Amino acid sequence: MQFSFNTKTVSFTFIACLEQLGSMNQEVNRIKKTKKPWPTKDAMQQVYEMKLWGGNNSNFYSGDGSHNSEIVNPYVAAITRFLVSFKTPITVCDLGCGDFNVGKNLVKHTKKYLAVDIVKDLIAYNKKEFKAERLEFLCLDIAEDELPAADCALVRQVLQHLSNAEVLKVMHKLKDFKYVILTEHLPLGEFVPNKDIISGQGIRFKKQSGINLLMPPFNLTVKEETVLVSFILKDSKGVIITTLYQLF
Ligand SMILES: C[S@@+](CC[C@H](N)C(=O)[O-])C[C@H]1O[C@@H](n2cnc3c(N)ncnc32)[C@H](O)[C@@H]1O
Q1: Are 118 and 194 found together in one domain?
Q2: Is residue 31 predicted with pLDDT exceeding 80?
Q3: Which of 24, 71, 95, 210 gives a 20 to 30 Å CA spacing to 187?
Q4: CB of 66 closer than 6 A to ligand 1?
């Protein structure tokens, strides 16, 4: 069998294809430049609807970090020690409370426990599921809305999911609390902190980075910093660190 090519036609078609690809590239770049990230509320709602953090059998599942007893139990023990160290119980605001598998253990050690999350259906579910006299659930966006007053803010594996712009907004509000207990998933060892991400399911760890509120662009100043508990994850997946900041 013999093939014959008209080289003129082939090269003309090839150039036309390249031109087409070039203009497609320009269009993709234009869309990339004008594309706005999803609102955080929608992104978080989708995470729960599509079970992107796992938990096939539950209506709402906030991920392994909220359910793995090896991670949760030492955290609950450390926060309990902190809470019962006060002569009179303190008020706590849990910012980004999630499915409340963690927070539910702490309510009894507080004077008042305000649990906040951005996902409306999750808050409605939690209201039905967890009832206690001193417990209140609120649907708020912690970056955009005014936060309730309390002695201590718990922010557990929340900022790791937010863009730097949103973390900055939250950080300014954290200054109103006397104590902030922050839990973040970080790379082990040295890393470049606070690389920016788009708010959503993912975290800075995929960029070998993690949140450090004391470093730029946040530059939070604190009176005292104490690591309460840390858990090293298997397979070089980093470390989950809980730090107590005393702010004034
Ligand atoms: C990984 S989960 C952690 C839940 C809980 N703190 C825990 O440790 O079990 C992160 C939670 O933060 C919530 N969240 C994210 N951005 C938020 C925002 N801007 N305002 C309030 N909640 C937010 C999400 O909806 C999600 O429930």
Answers
A1: yes
A2: no
A3: 95
A4: yes
Whether residue 30 is found in the same domain as residue 113: no
pTM of structure: 0.88
Ligand 1 pocket, residue 104 CB under 6 Å: no
Q: Which domain holds residue 19?
A: 7-36
User: Does the beta carbon of 40 lie inside 6 Å of ligand 1?
Assistant: yes
| CB of 136 sitting under 6 A from ligand 1 | no
Number of domains in the chain: 2
Whether residue 126 is found in the same domain as residue 88: yes
136-183 pLDDT per residue, tens: 999 999 999 999 999 999 999 999 999 999 999 999 999 999 999 999
How high is the pLDDT of residue 88? 98
Q: Is 178 exposed, middle or buried (0-12, 13-18, 19+ CB in 10 A)?
A: middle
- Measured in angstroms, how far is the CA atom of residue 46 from the centroid of ligand 1? 13
pLDDT surpasses 60 at 129: yes
Question: Is residue 2 situated within a structural domain?
Answer: no
Contact predicate 53/201, CB 8 Å? yes
Could you tell me if the CB of 147 is within 6 A of ligand 1? no
Token pair listed for 196: 């920016």
Ligand 1 atom at minimal distance to the Cα of residue 166? 19
